[in-house]
Here is the input.
Amino acid sequence: MKPPNSIRMWHPTMKKAFVISTVLRLSILLWITVIISPSAQQPPPTNIPTPYYDANNESVINYMKSAGLRSALSNPIHTLDHMREGFFLSRITPNGLLIGGGGDDNGRTYATIYMGGSQQQQQQQQQQRLLEPNTNRSAFFHAPPLLLALVDPVLLAWIPSATIQDFVFELVMMIVDLFTAIRLFQFARNVLSSESLLSSLKFIGNGSANGTKEEEEEEEDDDDDENDVVMQWEIGLEQKMDPSIQPKRAWVFGISFNTNDIPISSTTTTNEDNPPSSDVITSPPPKREAILELADIPQVCAIFYYCNPISILTNCCTACSFHGLWHLLLVSALQELTTTATSTTKSMTTTKTSNGNSNGNGTVSEVSKPTQQQQSKSNVPMAMLYLAIVSHIEINSILYLLPAILFTRRGFGYTRLVRSIVGCIGFFLLWSALLQYLSLLLVGRSNFVAMLLQSYAKDYKFYDLEPSLGLQWYFFMNMFDRFRTYFTIMHFGIPYLFAFPLLLRFHRYPIALTAMLSTILSLCKTTPTLNDMVLAFSLLLMAPRTLARMTNKSLVSLVALPVPITLYVTDYWLWLETGSGNANYMFFQCLAYNVFFSVILTDFFAATMLREKALYLTEKGPKKVMVTAVVG
Here is the structure.
């Protein structure tokens, strides 16, 4: 079995998939920008009556950029169109005057976007909301000022045409997607390297007697630095696990339990007078060829993220969304936490070489070579910077601190739990305070509180929600005002309600915990998107020992997911564009989407618990396994 560390970054299969996907993205982008967009803006032909010709419905560009498809693919706050709204609001003074009408933007400030003031002034603004809608700007812009400052000077101010802005932005997001896929490959390789390496070592140790005591001692000394102690404990128990509690689909990922060559003894009980006997010997199950080995999972994760149609539509030709950038920062944080650096140590190895001539005379010389070993040098400050930026944009991403602490504690960084907690939380708070200070400089002290309330209002107050694949928009649309506070707290606290019990239960499996939290956040966000689902599935692939225990209902739910997604886009068009439908049409499709996604999540929970229970029974001994099998 080849460990993932030996895989080259640009494997031929991965290279071909990336090249094909990049060419496809560029082709669609040029096709939409150069060919379809100008033709869609042309007036209708004069020889066709107006009632029988509709350029908006006939052009493909309007379908590709339809509101229903964009609502399924992206959060409207994290789009380039929303940044244009903020750019326009920054040019309007509190008195309603336009700044820089002649091309001069002197005097423009971000403080005009976030209008705070006293509570009495806010009440007056709410009373005058019907007469003067522009006095309440909190209903227009909900993004943090740092996000607007990221694209304002380069993309919005320097490029006048919206079409060219979209083209440049989509090219940048294409590069961001490529780097995200590479980071996913590196992160998966770091996580799965210990599993593949330990599996090969255990198999060699049990199958042959070539190992020496010195090699075993060196492996034990390097366990704390190179290998995950928990993974070593798990793989050691798998070598003596009873076949009755082994995962039935372990062969799919090439996970070997080293029991294929050992005959399986089964106990038979006829009645109470005859005690159980182990005389019946059954043949071991036949070996099956693996479909996807552990060494191939990093490539599959990268190809799945970069080459799927959802990422292509979201960041290449449809929504102009920033989601790819947030995913890059999040995966980079996880990759930094699991990176081990190869360093040259002081220990030297000597090799003897002999140089001889034709007469048989020669000299023996000793050559000293430095040895290299893996040492834990994860960059915790840089990882916390990436995570702080993501949490500054999406506040619920703070939950990824929990697996970050576990990654640094389990042999990849700080070795002690207290030290890991203090290091991760300390750097995270430091970077978060720095980001808030930069926001304070942009909006001013008087509007800072209003900026915080306005930027995160959708996340913790569920205000101004638009239809999406989630259920919150429909729930709060039918909510009575007197119950709103209670259900706001309940909906906002659902991810945190699950996070800490999962941490206590699955603290031994940080990658599985990361996939669980990513899936929960994809379901409980105020505006969930398909892009979040793609990232969650990419992380689920990194837990093959859990996937091997999942049932068929997850596969059925995965195949059924495209049905509610397609019907959601159709019902969105029926309700909000043609007016021939209603909100219940969309709600039922959102409900079906969340049910199918929840089935996959709960099955992953159950598979992880079965994985831990099987290890517990194996550790207790064969008698415990026998009693459990009889009772079950």
Remarks:
- The CA atoms of residues 213 and 219 lie 10 Å apart.
